[in-house]
Amino acid sequence: MPFCSRRCDYCAFATWDDRHHLWERYVAAARAEAVSAGGALWKGRGPATSVFFGGGTPSLLPAELLIGALYAVKANLGVAPGAKVTVECNPETVTRQKLTAYRDAGVTRLSFGVQSMVPAVLASLGRQHDPAAVRRAAQLAGEEGFASSYSVDLIFGAAGETMSDWESCLDEVLALEPPPSHVSAYALTVEPGTPLSRRPQRWPDEDDQAEKYMRADEVLSGHGLEWYEISNWARPGRRCAHNLLYWAQGEYVGLGCAAHSHQVGPGGRSRRWWNVRTPQRYCRLVEDGSSPEAAGEELGPEEQEFEALTLSLRTYRGVPPWAVPEELFEQGLVELKPGSLSAGGGARAVLTRRGRLLANEVASRLAAPAVAVAGRGRSRRA
Fold first, then answer.
1. Which residues fall within 8 angstroms of residue 203, CB to CB, at 6 or more apart?
2. Which of 222, 237, 252 is at the close of a domain?
């Protein structure tokens, strides 16, 4: 749902704040795409195990439009019993009426784009809400049946944010009533083409962000939220099933402009594709009976296996020890964890807290599966 009331300076997503006139037309196109997706391409592949309304700001739309899209998914793709259905919400758009409608339609989880609980930091990020709106949204979530199933997204590293600001933000989020069952904390990044990219004086400092990440992990872990992916912590049983499927290279159907899909084929091959970026073009293509696909790529078995390693490395599941060069263990970037704590089976190599700060570097040094069988990794795997 690519619509926002205002675009933040750091945002590089496919979102627009000047196309609200397209709401009904766009949702109608998304529903039509759901009908098409339920046809030959995905037929017989089973119902959806999770549904995620992302954006943009899905909660900006009237509830009946969003629910109409969910009904189209249920009718044409199917939704498995017990599936998690999530709606992303900005705090200032949350109303009791919307949450009631979501709950009655089968939404089971909310994701609040909080970013900060410090007014000056919110202003620096270009956010429209204040901390009071966050507290009110959390209270409504509790009263409308989402007490144990709402998530909070945070961003650290904004210009002018002190460590004291960040610690205050974490403390206030954990003090929400009811408290969130899941917290995502992302380092502010400078994306090409954004207003932020044109103002170097507002760029984040990497050392400062590293310290804030370490502090976030200490605080969140100390309050019972377990780390399970680079930027994600959750209470037991409350990990985001939808994102876990992405990181496990599962199959997914993307509906809407710029949405991505992934389908696994025979022989260890898979295909990933994505839709056109703008809502007008997307609507026009769907209305004309044409595919909204913009481009795609095929992954062979070796590419699949290596991507599986890099994605799994980011998570609590880790990777097989044979994939990790010995020096990364010696440098304290990865450590062995029993299989029962990660992905089952034998021991796994999991990023340490320090290793998470250098996850991209670690990933770039993983051994490809074919190399590991013949190289030094053989003894560690055995």
1. 159, 190, 196
2. 237
